[in-house]
Amino acid sequence: MSAEWVRGEDILNVADGQTQRGELNPDRLAHQILQRLLWAKENVSSPSGRLPVLFTSKAADMLWGTVQAALNGKHILEKASPWGERLGKPVMSPNLTLYQDPEAGPYSCPFDDEGQPTQPLIFIQNGVLQNFYCDRTTGRQLGITTTGNGFRPGLGSYPTPGLFNFLIQPGSASLQDLICQMDNGLIVDQMLGGASGISGDFSINVDLGYLVENGHVIGRVKDTMVAGNVYTALKQLVKVGSDGDWNGPCYTPSLIVEGLSTTGRHN
After folding, report:
1. Dihedral sign, Cα of residue 114, residue 118, residue 119, residue 124
2. Where are the strands (E) in 93-200, listed by range?
3. Sign of the CA dihedral 260, 262, 65, 254?
4. In the predicted model, is pLDDT for residue 56 greater than 90?
5. For residue 235, what pLDDT is reported?
């Protein structure tokens, strides 16, 4: 579902969607879009410097691609992941628990492409690294059994470690609660660009973002960039929201992180 608002040369497109199995809620979707249009009623000057950034559940998916790559057993073998020697040690904020659940959501599956049963698996519990995911070959090379995560990228490909349902445990604060807890900050809802693979470094153009002052959204920002590193940001996570949503096979809530740089053009 999407809405386009044209004001002279200022064109705003707000889009959102739901991926569910038999539980679609178009009214909630419409409310989310109308809320974002209301926040965008005024255009305000872009912020610069370091300030808290709130990624909505729609935008937070950008962070988790890097994390999924770091948990991939193949990248552990290749020593490409920074977490290869970190099992049992903290790698991110204690507010974060990441896991897979074969029966959760629209991407549930009972077995992988190697015929192995899929299984519930906690990857990170309260910030501490617990497990990687792997297929049979990678698991054997790592000295562990397969986790039931052997999937073929295409029909002509061999199985490789892959994810089907990746969930971030939501917190207790609503999106509005998160906003109220920000003295001054930036909300990122839609973006252009993303994380640069397993390195975690990113620089994104904010396609749809809002400025928060004293716990209130005061308007939409334009011509704004956010840059930083995913691993650093997730260590400086402030709060996790309760508004989990599916972005493809990734279930993520909104969250506030620190340690990112913002640059913008002042009106």
Report:
1. positive
2. 98-100, 121-125, 128-129, 150-151, 160-161, 166-168, 184-192
3. positive
4. yes
5. 95
